[in-house]
Amino acid sequence: MLTGIGTSTGVVTAPACVLNSPADFESFQPGSVLVAVTTTPAWTPLFSSASAIVTDIGGPLSHSSIVAREYGIPAVMATHIATRTIKSGQMITVDGLAGTVTFDE
């Protein structure tokens, strides 16, 4: 399990999609959990089809958190190691209230 700062409430279980840069956007599958080091406004179009957001850095006022709340999707920030621990396609559960990311078997 990873812990971070829950910044947008809700619980979602879905496959992860780890993206390192905008060059990876083509590999994003709608309904996936977007996992990234952080996001910028260039990432905003992905939020409409993401089921949740998990980042290595960020807080309640970060771009990722603000946009996740606007879209009403769970978000966990500041996990520090999500992009190095989670693999694309891996089923994870994101709890935006508790600030946790669990790995489903």
CATH-wise, what's the superfamily? Phosphohistidine domain
Low-confidence stretches: none
Enumerate how many helices there are, as a single number: 3
CATH topology: Glucose Oxidase, domain 1
- Could you name the CATH class? Alpha Beta
Distance between the termini: 12 Å
% residues in beta strands: 25-35%
* Number of extended strands: 8
Strand order of the largest sheet: 1-8-7-3-4-5-6-2
Mean pLDDT: 98
Estimated helix fraction: 10-25%
Domain PEP-utilising enzyme mobile: 28-99
Organism: Clostridioides difficile (Peptoclostridium difficile)
InterPro entries: PEP-util_enz_mobile_dom (IPR008279), PEP_Utilizing_Enz (IPR051549), Phosphohistidine_dom_sf (IPR036637)
Protein name: PEP-utilizing kinase
Short note summarizing the structure:
The chain has 105 residues and is of the alpha/beta class.
Structure description:
This protein is α/β, with parallel strands linked by helices and 105 residues long. The chain has one domain: Glucose Oxidase, domain 1 (3-Layer(bba) Sandwich). The protein is built from 3 helices and 8 strands; from the N terminus they run ββββαβαβαββ. It has helices at 44-47, 63-71, 82-85, and strands at residues 2-3, 5-8, 11-18, 33-36, 52-55, 75-77, 91-95, 100-103. The chain has an 8-stranded mixed beta sheet with strand order 1-8-7-3-4-5-6-2, with helices on one face. Helix 2 (63-71) links the parallel strand 5 and strand 6. The radius of gyration is 11 Å and the shape is globular. The mean pLDDT is 98. It comes from Clostridioides difficile. Keywords: Kinase, Transferase. This is PEP-utilizing kinase. Residues 28-99 form the PEP-utilising enzyme mobile domain. GO terms for molecular function: kinase activity.
